[in-house]
Amino acid sequence: MIRVVVVDDQELMRVGFRMVLGAQADIDVVGEAGDGAQAIELASRLRPDVVLMDVRMPVLDGVEATKRIVAAGTARVLVMTTFDLDEYVYAALQGGASGFLLKDTQPDHLVSALRAVASGDAVVSPSVTRRLLDRFVGTGGAPMRDTAELDVLTDREREVLVLIAKGMSNLEIAEALFLSEATVKTHVGRILAKLDLRDRVQAVVLAYETGLARPGLA
């Protein structure tokens, strides 16, 4: 069973998420919270697999709650947001969130994303990722981090990292580079290990922050 804590300051939203997730045989909503402070307490006490996290909430916002939950290693966090909260989501990704979804995401997409995060993967929406990074990493393309961090990668690994930054799946990368999916999976694993990254979300952020990928081009 995938154990989930739902965090949103609107009770109606929590009820909706509980109905969608509770209808799945492999998902158990073990708790609900209306603010970030409650989310941290529940995550620490219940040790869920995933916290479904809202961003703007009273007492403590979802960004800070995400940072503390991830730092404590109590759960993985999937952030729910709307387009007008872009800056908060980027901060949440930097704080360790395993991905983000829009609140108008279709129920089946929400379920599949939650399963992916629970299994250790990350959820990267190409369109939203591009929008976020175009706005907050800088349209001028100036690197925010030392590009020397990427020196440990081979040319092929750099190529794969650029495609990860596009939000492409392993299968899509395999088709683009004429490789097997297993080979791509190996490359992705090596990229994460060499760069000391937790998942694909962090890889996307790093690709943009070092200038390897650039808004409007990736």
TrEMBL record:
Keyword field: DNA-binding, Phosphoprotein, Transcription, Transcription regulation
Entry keyword DNA-binding: yes
Occurrences of domain HTH luxR-type (ranges): 146-211
KW DNA-binding (keyword) present: yes
PTM sites of type 4-aspartylphosphate: D54
CDD domains: LuxR_C_like (cd06170), REC_NarL-like (cd17535)
Domain Response regulatory: from-to ranges: 3-118
Name of this protein: Response regulator transcription factor
Organism: Amycolatopsis nalaikhensis
